Amino acid sequence: MSIDPVVGHHKGFCFLEYETPEGGDMAVEALNGAQLGGRSLRVGRPNHYNPGLIATLPPPPPGRLYVANVNEFVSEANVASIFEPFGTPVKCVLIPDVLRRKHKGYGYIEFGDAQASQMALAAMNGFDLGGMPLRIRKAVVGGPLPEGIIDANQRYSLMKRLAQRGVSTVVCIANAVGLEEVDDELQEEFAQECSNFGQVVKVVVHTTPSDPLPERQVKIFVQFTDATGSQTALAALNGRWFGGRQLSAWLYDQDKFYAGNYSA
């Protein structure tokens, strides 16, 4: 929240960014007008928000639902089983928190047809599961579903083994921002964000305006002290949505990084 330097208090507003478009939509729908501290909240999109951006993203399958407010002790198998009366789920994933090795409390469930998802949405939105009411809505973004909590735990075990085999400590991240969004604060922002995954040694923002692929014109290289940090960052960032863009991340050759060769 922005602080007024004169009075030493915040200015009464802030910006929140969700990892998924569905989470942002739900927040606006549920919190606009809600009471907090004796005041009625006004929740909406920022002035520079472009609603047409959603149209540029892949459309979701008609049977896909977004499920939020899931108790941390509820598993993917639990969620899939309670939705089975409406049709056999094609896939159910709860988005993993690779640091805590638990899910983040939200995910997706997908049915083979739209009718099954519509019945599930009507019946299960607000359903109490583990003492918490489920929040459900139609998915906004298509494309392949991310890995679930089971896959993430398997990857975490693999990461620990790879960390002992000289795996690169450098991660390259693409499609985070466009050329016009590169500024002096970008390096520090990614250093802070990636410190959640391990100790960051160095961050390099490299631009290649001549690259024919717009998503590759800005690459951000993050060096960690060890391979556990780079593997954790890779698992958390690759495929993640950031400011309306889907990140692409991969491990980068350390020797090339040390030599200042950023032609990934």
UniProtKB/TrEMBL annotation:
Annotated keywords: mRNA processing, mRNA splicing, Nucleus, RNA-binding
Gene Ontology BP term (one): regulation of alternative mRNA splicing, via spliceosome
InterPro entries reported in the protein's UniProt record: Nucleotide-bd_a/b_plait_sf, PUF60_regulator, RBD_domain_sf, RRM_dom, RRM_euk-type
Main location class: nucleus
GO molecular function: RNA binding
Nucleus is among the record's keywords: yes
Span of domain RRM: 1-48, 63-141, 169-254
Pfam families reported for this sequence: RRM_1 (PF00076)
GO CC terms in record: catalytic step 2 spliceosome; precatalytic spliceosome
Location relative to the cell: Nucleus
Protein name: RRM domain-containing protein
Naturally occurring in which organism (per UniProt): Dimargaris cristalligena
